[in-house]
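Re: the request from the purification team.
They wanted to know what the chain is likely to look like in 3D before they choose a buffer screen. I agreed to run a prediction and write the result into the notebook, where they can find it.
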Amino acid sequence: MTSPSSPSLSSGIAARTPAHSSDICIVGNGAVGKTAALALAQAGLRVCLLAPAGAPGAPGATTPAVDWDVRVYALNHLAHDLLSSVRVWDALDAERVAPVDGMAVQGDGEHAPGQLAFDAYSARVNALAWIVEDRNLNTALDAALKFASNVQIVRGRATAMQADDSGITLQLEQGDTVRAALLVGADGGQSWVRGQCDIGLDYRSYGQRAIVSNFACEKPHHGVAHQWFTASEGIIALLPLPGQRVSLVWSAPDALAAELLSLSATQLAERLATVAADKLGQLTPLQPELVRDFPLVLIKPHAMIAGRVALIGDAAHVVHPLAGHGMNLGFADVQGLLKAITEREPQRDCGDARVLRRYARSRKEEVLLMQLTTDGLARLFGSNVEPLRLVRNLGLNLLNGLPVLKRRLMAHALGRHH
């Protein structure tokens, strides 16, 4: 890999003493950025977390968690271990976390739909993954950050940045500056940090929207996550929540998504019954008014690093949610960055070009594999051509009957492939 390019130099940044000085400045207010702040601070580094003013986690911004959050994540073992190491996992509201004990994937086709099943017992683990609500995760992270002695939370927005041999300076909207040896962009798919760095990217819309909502189910789900791959209806996933409840992630082609969004949650449940009724029985909306959607895109930046800059999470890669791995990839980025920084030679600071290249190298293979896998599956199951339908159903059945390959696939999904 070539030497990281320097961020575009923004003129006019004041040379006076910075208001906030740290080893690492993290831009972003999501779960990946907050976890990175805790992990790096725990490793003895001084961290500045730059979050938007009035963002969730600001004093008084939390609301009591009564209803079920429609934004959920399927966190794997790597994510579990990382969150445990920063003492956040045990701070989650355990009654709102659902272990995934099995996964049932079904293809389409009336005569011989492909099937693939995973279970925790075969994988010799206590759970394949855990379903955690966005709000539950962020509430626990915010509580931990309040007690993190090495983390300074700065509210505001960066407007310019400038790198030099010894560090990087951010100019904030309110006029003060932040100085750090390393800037970490954890600011999402539309990353401002990445945009400042002359990092090109490949962007493609899938022409799909993810529709999310929560339902009570008539039959117990037994901790099984169900996923249906269909050409005409898109990819439907029903993930277990505690009790007899499930969380829907329906990756639907745009035209179908528009149709689904025009339905009430009750009508949406009736539509779902055509695929899910035999497994889960009748579905009832938990919050009738709460159906959300977001566009599905593939974002592949050409680099995860630049001069004194490292990208993590959605700033570094956005993949199709069909495998539920976007958040897990982000947590693996945090672990990779933490390893590169804590294992650096004494003479190198944490923004040293060689340290950043090690981080980028350590993540390249896994990120590429996840991009290729999710993109390939999204394309394969997005086609309604009959020969392809037969091939993909055959493929699911074949994989289901190959224990060695299936175990490797499971190890990768669990985050235990290292």
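For the purification team: Residues 103 and 118 are 5 Å apart (CA to CA).
Please add any questions underneath this entry.
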